[in-house]
Amino acid sequence: MFRFLTAGESHGRGLVAIVEGVPAGLALDEEYIARHLKRRQGGYGRSARMDIERDRAEILSGVRHGLTIGSPISLLIRNRDWENWQEVMAVSPVEREIEPITRPRPGHADLAGAIKYGLGDIRPILERASARETAARVAVGAVARRLLQEFGIEIHSHTIAIGGVKAKEGRNIDWAQFEKKVEKSPVRCADPDAEREMMAAIDKAKEAGDTVGGIFQVIATSVPIGLGSHVHWDRRLDGRIAQAMMSINAVKGVELGAGFSLAELKGSQAHDIIHFDKAKRKWHHASNRAGGIEGGITNGEPIVVNAVVKPIPTLAKPLPSVDMKTGEVVEAHFERSDVCVVPSAAVIGEAMLAIVLASALLEKFGGDHLKETLHNYQGYLDSIAKRS
Ligand SMILES: Cc1cc2nc3c(=O)[nH]c(=O)nc-3n(C[C@H](O)[C@H](O)[C@H](O)COP(=O)(O)O)c2cc1C
Question: 3-387: what fold?
Answer without folding.
Answer: Chorismate synthase, AroC fold (3.60.150)
